[in-house]
Amino acid sequence: MTIFAFRVFDIFPQPFYTLPSALEALRSDSSGMEHTAQIVAYYTNGKQLIVPSELYVYQKSRFKSTDEASAWLKNRNEKAVNGRPLGILVANPNDTFEKQLDDAMSVKDVSLIDDKPVASIVSNIENWLAEHHYLAN
């Protein structure tokens, strides 16, 4: 059974005929929607498989430690204008500081895995597809 195309739903209407081209298009997209994109592999038998997003999307904590988050929140709260914080809202400034800190520590930045070469991501996805091809039978 052969894959003939990939689609990246909710971002690109056109099919991609190679996995690297789909990933490169996703990586180059400036909409910031890569975390909602869904890559689907289409097989010649008419079946399709959704590629798990954890193979090409990465989530990491915005802050490395509670000390870093605490310092950022204190700085943000000190610079608030008329009680409204400037910049990215990672926590409600009207909550207790402890709640703000908890919220800040739970924030994840989501992006296409761009610290790895596309070839590495492609290899991981191809391995997953090979292991799960029976689902498209």
- What's the structural domain tally? 2
Report the span from N to C terminus: 8 Å
| Topology pattern, helix = H, strand = E | EHEEEHHEH
Strand composition percent: 15-25%
**CA-atom Rg in angstroms:** 20 Å
Give the helix level as a range of percent. Answer: 25-40%
Number of strands: 5
Please tally the helical runs, counting DSSP H or I stretches of 4 or more residues. 4
Low-confidence stretches: none
Principal-axis shape:
elongated
Name a few traits of the molecule.
5 strands; 137 residues; 3-stranded antiparallel beta sheet; alpha+beta; elongated; two-stranded antiparallel sheet; single chain; 4 helices
Strand and helix layout:
Elements: E1 3-9, H1 19-28, E2 38-43, E3 48-50, E4 57-61, H2 66-78, H3 97-106, E5 108-112, H4 118-132
Antiparallel strand pairs: 1-2, 2-3, 4-5
Describe this structure in words.
The chain is an alpha+beta fold and about 140 residues long. Helix content is about 35%, strand content about 20%. It has helices at about 20-30, 65-80, 95-105, 120-130, and strands at about 5-10, 40-45, 50, 55-60, 110. The strands form 2 sheets. It has a 3-stranded antiparallel beta sheet with strand order 1-2-3, with helices on one face. A hairpin with a 4-residue loop joins strand 2 and strand 3. The model has no long low-confidence stretch (mean pLDDT about 80).
Brief write-up:
By secondary structure, the chain is an alpha+beta fold. Helices cover 35% and strands 19% of the residues.
